[in-house]
Specification:
Elements lengths: L7 E6 L2 E9 L5 H12 L7 E10 L2 H16 L4 E4 L4 H10 L1 H4 L2 E2 L2 H21 L5
Parallel strand pairs: 2-3, 3-4, 4-5
Antiparallel strand pairs: 1-2
Helix pairs in contact: 1-2
């Protein structure tokens, strides 16, 4: 279902799936946000996921829960999952007071975020290449 107020975009840039959250997000956007991030996780044509929050002006615990769930699911695959700003003060405060900012891979700009996704993908590739073969 697409709402009259499109708040979530999914694009590709530099072989990375970019999910952008805009304006204010709350419980009414939870399903759409989760579907966008789940789809990004499964996008085999890209090397990782960047969640661009530069346009997000408000997020509540529901949005934070979606982000943390997506982060954990990306880690399980494994697939890089990075957030980018700059972050609106209200969004930054949510990450600060919950401590989620310490657990998530956060960058200050989309350019930094794309670079970080590629860096993490390179590490995953080298970790997999150096892992012993399963017997």
């Amino acid at each position: 279902m697409v709402s009259d107020r499109q708040r979530i975009d999914v694009t590709r840039q530099d072989r990375v799936t970019v999910v952008s959250f805009r304006d204010d997000m709350d419980l009414t956007d939870e399903a759409e946000a989760y579907l966008a991030l789940s789809g990004a996780r499964g996008d085999t044509a890209t090397t990782g996921t960047l969640l661009d929050l530069a346009g997000l002006t408000f997020a509540d615990s529901t949005t934070l829960n979606v982000i943390l769930r997506a982060y954990n699911e990306h880690q399980a695959v494994p697939r890089p999952f990075v957030l980018s700003g700059p972050y609106h003060p209200a969004v930054d405060r949510l990450f600060e007071i919950t401590g989620a900012g310490e657990a998530l891979d956060m960058t200050d700009s989309r350019t930094e975020g794309l670079r970080r996704v590629h860096e993490l993908r390179g590490r995953l590739g080298s970790d997999q290449a150096s892992a012993p073969d399963a017997q």
